[in-house]
Amino acid sequence: MSFQDLFPVDSLSVLQWQAMFPLLVLGAASVLGLLVSPIPRAGRAFAFASVSGGALLSLIGLSFMSFQDPVSVLDGVLYFDRSSQVFSFVILAVTLGCCLLSVGFDKREHLVAELYPLMGFSAVGMIGLVSSRHLMMLFISLELMSLAVYVLVSMQRRSAEAAEAGLKYFLLGGAASSVFLFGVTLLYGTTGTLELSALAQSAQGLWQGQVPLLFALGLCLIAVGFLFKVGAFPFHSWVPDVYTGASTPVTGFMISGVKLAAVGLMLRLGAEIFALPGLLESHGALSQVLSVVTALTLIVGSLLGLVQNNVKRMLAYSTIAHTGYLLLGFMALTVGGQAAAADAIASYSVIYAVMNLGCFAVLTLVNPEGHDDLMLKDLAGLGRSRPVLAFALSVFLLSMAGIPPTAGFFGKYYLFLSAVSSGHIALTVLAALASVVSAAFYIKPLVVMYMDQPQDGVSAPSPRWFGAGLVVAITLVLTVVLGMLPAWVSHLL
Predict the structure, then answer these.
(1) Fewer CB near the last or first residue (10 Å), C or N of the chain?
(2) How far apart are CA 122 and CA 130, in angstroms?
(3) What is the mean pLDDT of the chain?
(4) Are the C-beta atoms of 264 and 172 separated by less than 8 Å?
(5) Among the residues of 12-114, which ranges form H helices?
(6) Do 416 and 326 form a contact (C-beta atoms < 8 A)?
């Protein structure tokens, strides 16, 4: 077999090259950023300019593309459609935003210049994750994203917590990836294909009244790897420790970008594999398992978040609770057969990424120097010392709580509506109660900011970095505007 047979690059059309433009540009920019980052004194600025410029150029190019008719490259190894366009656009925006909010913070906290190219490489993996219908490409993209994030988490070399978080994430993430890959091999051994649509067709011909054991086991293993990446119960234990140990911009990158890519993968697998009629008719096993996982994820995230005094740890449990809401939409999409749930999941994911990115931009600006472990008491007096930042953080937190008329309210509304339409009324009621409970720990920072005095009587001076301030301004406007005009994101797919 020749090289041309393995990699038929010459056969790609102009449209296919255009579809790969964001991947190619951001990948090249990340490589360039990695090469220039060791340059003395100017390496950090060059790395930032390369990666942020590549993300911006990719963002502009993607906004002018239309994927109403899907574009397939190399028989589905890369598959660009409306879903991949939406998720790739937000991933690029999050990457650009995290690069901007890291400027100033990286130098003060002694983060190495490779921070920016690693974000770029991780974003390339995320785009590949949401732009493929081939299981091997999905695994490669997953590993590219994960390996870069492992290093990002432990980048604060002077912090023992960061080193512990990076090691824990590496070991557990590696185990989850192995489980995912084992599931892929079982599906391939059962069906003889790795392409999702062909796999679904092969699977439908295998079962006669029941799902084959090896196929079901392969799906279970893939689901375990997926549930780990989104931080669902019982694979959530790494989330609080890793999010707390990582530096604030990296935590924002993970909670916005990595979570978004995992949701894009969830939609792809849900629509292509987990919604197969034969699977859904197998004695309701899928519905029962998903119901238990969703319920426990909601309960754990909401209740454990109430007792947290560390801000990042509190937001870590918050993201576990938000995973429960997304799993509720996933049940409506697969078990309930509600095609509209895909739009609800996509719109909630976009809103979730926007408000979390803004929240961590604020936390980056108020973080004490040399103490990247923000506690609630560190926010005391912020309403008087930095009223604009306090107001922005209040809006983001209220949006996470689902308080109207913020964007978070309508995101939850669309998810709950799709779940009720699919018949999951009890789980929707539980999700609504969890939302009420979680509102209590979103209000705690507001009380501290506006009603408590700093312990020493004087608020510590906060930096005024332009990049982080710009991210706060843009995400604040989007959170308010999307709350006033939710139709803008209600039909993304």
Answers:
(1) N
(2) 13
(3) 84
(4) no
(5) 14-19, 21-36, 43-63, 82-102, 105-108
(6) no
